[in-house]
Amino acid sequence: MKQWALALFTATSLLLTACGTPAAENTNAAGAYASITDDNGRTVTFDKKPERIVVTSASFLEPLYAVGGSVVGRPDSKSKIPDAAKDVTSIGRVYQIDAEKIIALQPDLVILNKGMNEKLVDTLAANNIKTLILDMKSFEDVKREIGTFATLTGEKAKGDELIRKMDADIEAVRASIPQEKKRVAIIHSTGQGLSVQLDGSIAGNIANILGWENTAAGMPALDKNPDAAPYSMETLVAQNPDIIFVTSMGEEAEIRASMEAMFAESPAWQSVGAIRDGRVYYLPQEMFLFSPGIDYPKAVQYMARLVYP
Fold it and tell me: Are residues 112 and 223 in the same domain?
């Protein structure tokens, strides 16, 4: 595959990516250092700059450090740990955060992952620890949180410049591919079975950024996962996607073998354009299940390059 260069575009080319989710309200209340409205609609006021920050998701680390921040506690993770945070105290796995370890670190702020760690709010509040609940799924989420982190660190210029570069890099990828309306399906494979990813998922969001149509858009979401819908072979065959992407928490070789066996089981699959044309692609979990954060442009480029080498 040829190397793609990511070049800066003019300000007008950034309008496309600038019109998404509005930024969280980050203001300076009278006499306060900052007042921030988080992604659960809670407004949190800081009398001074937070100096001892704990994060419950490794996805928060890179953007926070990129705007001059640091942490005293972080979750275990096989990836997404900046060098400066590798020796920082662990507070457990992202799904099993240890509240006692957090409290022992005496933080003045804990940044919680929306949809995963809200249950810690009351315990931390009882110990006079402020919390922010933030989301990092979509590209607009990432840009919004960079703005929030820049407000916390007092480095607004760094945040603005990082966002400008990310916008330009993504627009460069978009401009480098044919403007074709591809119809894509995104299958998520787990040990419990299959589902299809909706536009709110990371992979769905990236497909939308590239101008492609998610065939699952509009399907009813799963009760426990608003970003996924139930899998149905009959429905997917009827939708006849041009491309199928596969995400999974497992090993790619095992998932690939399992998916290929499934496609071979029924002749109906051979009527699907993506299967017939060999356009089934496997996406790495570090970019498409965990938030790519400030590497969102690389994730967009990765998906685009699979389709247009």
Answer: no
User: Is the same domain home to 26 and 167?
Assistant: yes
- Domain of 68? 11-172
Q: Are residues 38 and 144 in the same domain?
A: yes
167 vs 9: CA distance, rounded Å: 9
Does the pLDDT value for residue 15 go beyond 50? Answer: no
Domain presence at residue 5: no
CA pair distance 67, 162, nearest whole angstrom: 8
Structure token digits, residue 110: 């804990």
Same domain, yes or no: 81 and 158: yes
Q: Are 167 and 191 members of one domain? A: no
Q: Which residues contact 252 (CB under 8 A, 6 or more apart)?
A: 282, 284
Does residue 4 sit within a domain? no
Contacting residues for 299 by C-beta, under 8 A, at least 6 apart:
202, 206, 287, 288, 292
What burial class does residue 113 get, using C-beta atoms within 10 Å of its C-beta: 0-12 exposed, 13-18 middle, 19+ buried?
buried
* Structure confidence at residue 267 as a pLDDT band (50, 70, 90): very high
Average pLDDT over residues 280-305: 96
Q: Considering its fold, how many domains does the chain have in total?
A: 2
**Among 139, 138, 133, 158, CA closest to 147:** 158
pLDDT score of 29: 52
Quick check: is 2 in a domain?
Answer: no
Q: What is the pLDDT of residues 200-254, one digit of tens each?
A: 999 999 999 999 999 999 999 999 899 999 999 999 999 999 999 999 988 889 9
Q: What is the pLDDT at residue 23?
A: 43
